[in-house]
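REQUEST FORM: STRUCTURE PREDICTION
Request ID: SP-0412
Submitted by: Lab K.M.
Chain count: 1
Length (residues): 203
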Amino acid sequence: MKKIQISQTLKNIIVIVVIAVVFFFVGKVWPSGEEPTAITSDLLSQQIQGISELASVEYNYTNMGKYENQATFYGWKVPFTTKSFILSYDGQIKAGIDMSLVEVNVHGQNIDITIPQAKILSHEIDQESIEVFDETKNIFNQISITDYNQFAIDQKKSMESKAQEKGLLEEAQNKAKEIIQTFVESMYSSSDDYKIEIKMAES
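STATUS: Completed
RESULT:
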């Protein structure tokens, strides 16, 4: 199973991409030959929302799980009714912050930014990677689509818990803060000596 790792090279690439995005925004906000647009809370909020994809963390994994079920009768397990299968699959969990919930307050020369707690944004299983092993053919308790669907739901919950235990949300939180800090400082830190402060919202 792959751990969450961001190498120094990858961090450098991220910074370069952020700077490129910054220049794009600067070109739109301050066209050549025009006076700089006044910094407002609404303007900065809109610009920050434009870098939401850069501020997310992807957790890729390969997992194998087993499903097993046996028919029961008044609490007693019925013999010869066990159905089971083993499934191998690849998945991707994406975590980050909801940029629409970022609070920006520009007052005087101070820019105060409050970012929400990171959360899981999406979790996809690569359907083409799925392999089924040891699938039973029990005529008394046949495997159904519902079994596969429930198995997928349970597996997703399990993998999300494991990813969080490995620090996925903390990594997403730190990356979001770093990206926003870099973005805002590149645009406004040297402009009229703005003081930028970024903090986390309380959970």
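NOTES: The beta strands are 57-73, 76-96, 103-107, 110-115, 119-133, 195-200.
Reviewed by: T.R.
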